[in-house]
Amino acid sequence: MGKRIPVVLVAGFLGAGKTTLLNHLLRHADGTRIAVVVNDFGSVNIDAMLVSAQVDSMVSLGNGCLCCVLDTSDLDGMFSRLARTKPDVIVVEASGLAEPVELVQMVLASRHQRIRYAGLLMVVDGAHFAATRAEHPEIDRHLHYADLVVANKDDLLDPAERAALHATLAELAPGAPVVPSLRGRIDPALLFDAAPHGARTVPRARQLSFDDLLRDAATHEAHGDHGTDAADDAHADHLHSAYDTLNLESAEPLDPRAFAAFMERGFPGVYRMKGFVRFALPGRPDRYTLQLVGRHLSYTRSGWPRGQQPTTTLVAIGAGFDAAALRDGFAACTLAESAGPVADPDIAMAGIRRHLEGREAEDRAAARESDTPGTDPDLSAAEVEAYAD
Ligand SMILES: Nc1nc2c(ncn2[C@@H]2O[C@H](COP(=O)(O)OP(=O)(O)OP(=O)(O)O)[C@@H](O)[C@H]2O)c(=O)[nH]1
């Protein structure tokens, strides 16, 4: 039998930066063949669409959490499918609401001959960590099992906040290295051997044993958490049992002004929204990838990849939000295709462009730094006038 394929689990709360990190790993794989399992909460698998096309093989699991939709034999079937493509490593990106400890247990219980569990990486949103932890104390338990903690969104922390965060994480994940990261940019060698025949070893401080996990499961049951046969009851303590999702889709394009106003309004109870938007713009309109984490809204602009329908597809995740109001508000932003593109697209897009990330945001910052009025590349003369009003 050949070498076993390591399986690395990537977990972390909604919006922490797991998909961003996975894309970084894929882009810097440097010859390592990475097979990927992605899993979204909600029936539209946005994450699968956000993961780069360069992945060698991917299994995408839609609705529900990996920890609930699979049992061990399903998992073995999935590993068999992926193993056929002869990857050097399998990376499993759990949904932001998955129970990482149960996922670890499942991988450890796998009877698949060709795979081995290679560790749990927990991604933490450094900027929202205290708030997330206050609302979801179970995060502490998840961190306890981490083999590596990535303190992401380091750019949003000042030195004092960074020091406090790292001290807390070191306490919650004893023995696990805590690495700061910006946009998930970590050295892939932290997770797997450089391929194909690299000699680097995984510098994990500790490796969870099956005994540890069995102990954890027993403690869990002793607390009455897993008392019944019903899957729903068995998973009642999962993070995601307290969350709802809502899909918003439209084949008709959106009015950018109306949509910008809709997003500015804020949605009590919605923690996360992500997906793709098509605006009613002239020509072949770009794809705007929307990311809302807490109150932070951002867009990135790109073309529509071949094979992806240019339709607006969003998923909202939260607890106790007003789904009807959200659905109605969204519907009010759609325009009939037959109405054609919006007039004055430059002005109409101003409210969207304010939240654009990537190259355009850098251009905007550079223009601001040059301190020359009227040189912002994102603002047309008409827009400058509109703002002046
Ligand atoms: N400022 C900042 N933003 C980041 C960083 N890393 C990721 N983001 C942004 O955070 C948002 C969420 O990132 P994702 O990678 O989709 O997070 P996720 O953990 O996969 O989210 P779920 O799939 O919903 O659980 C996106 O808008 C990212 O661009 C970072 O280091 N700094």
From TrEMBL:
It comes from the Bacteria. Residues 243-334 form the CobW C-terminal domain. Transmembrane segments: none annotated. Residues 359-371 have a biased composition (Basic and acidic residues). Gene3D superfamilies: CobW-like, C-terminal domain, P-loop containing nucleotide triphosphate hydrolases. The keyword Metal-binding does not apply. The keyword Chaperone applies. Keywords: Chaperone, Hydrolase, Nucleotide-binding. Residues 359-389 are annotated as: Disordered. Pfam families: cobW, CobW_C. Coiled coil: none annotated. It catalyses: GTP + H2O = GDP + phosphate + H(+). Belongs to the SIMIBI class G3E GTPase family. ZNG1 subfamily. This is GTP-binding protein. It comes from Yinghuangia aomiensis. The lineage of its organism: Bacteria, Bacillati, Actinomycetota, Actinomycetes, Kitasatosporales.
